[in-house]
Every structure is written in C-alpha cells, then in structure tokens.
Write a structure and sequence with these properties.
- This protein is of the alpha+beta class.
- The chain has two helices and eight strands; from the N terminus they run E-H-E-E-E-E-H-E-E-E.
- The chain has an eight-stranded mixed β-sheet with strand order 2-3-4-1-5-8-7-6, with helices on one face.
- The protein is globular.
Length: 112
C-alpha cells in the first residue's frame, strides 16, 4: 500500500520561499541545498523545489511512496492520467515521477 509522505512545492525564488515556509512552519529546514529545501514537521516532509516547474510540477504536489514505480505509472496512465515527468533518479536511491489526472491535479510518485 502506498502513502503520501512528501508534499513538494515548485518555487521560482528559493530564498523567498524558504523565508516564508520557515516562518509558516516555525522550524529550520533539515536540508538546505540550491536544488532542494526540505522540512520535516511531525513526520511529514514538506519541500521546496526550484526545478519543480521545469519538471512539470504545476503546484503543491503530494508524493506517494510506491513499491513499483513503473507499474504504478502504467496503472495510472491506463486509468487516464498523463505523465508530466518521466521517472528520474533524484539521488540516494530514490526515483520520482509526476502525473496529472484528467482535471490537471498533480500526482507525485516516489520509490526508494
């Protein structure tokens, strides 16, 4: 069974977004890199991705952990979703992909 464990926001100005989310969440990021800023709040990962728009992420996107990334993509496409980002190795053995449903709502998938 999959679960949402990460919410990623695509951002154009990482420094500005970091100031806003640090104030909102009341914690400093656990990861603060030019390619990713991540916060953990009570076990929920919230992240800022300055490359998100380029990857096809159109807004805040929940990322679901799955056991078989390719099989889940196939099932979603068969059900009518559209791939917006092909599977990508993002480091540490993690691969991600994103899709959009028929209404354009974003669906993120990740596999460790």
């Amino acid at each position: 069974m999959s679960a949402v464990n990460t919410l990623i926001y695509p951002v154009a100005d990482l420094d500005a977004a970091k100031r806003v989310f640090t104030a909102l969440l009341g914690v400093e990021p656990h990861t603060d890199q030019p390619y990713y800023v991540g916060y953990n709040v009570d076990g929920q990962e919230l992240a800022l991705d300055p490359n998100g728009h380029r990857k096809g992420i159109k807004g805040a996107t929940p990322f679901w952990s799955v056991d078989d990334l390719e099989a889940r993509i196939t099932a979603l496409v068969d059900a009518g979703a559209t791939v917006t980002q092909q599977p990508t190795d993002v480091g540490g053995g993690r691969r991600t992909a994103s899709l959009a449903d028929a209404d354009g709502n974003m669906i993120g998938l990740m596999q460790d």
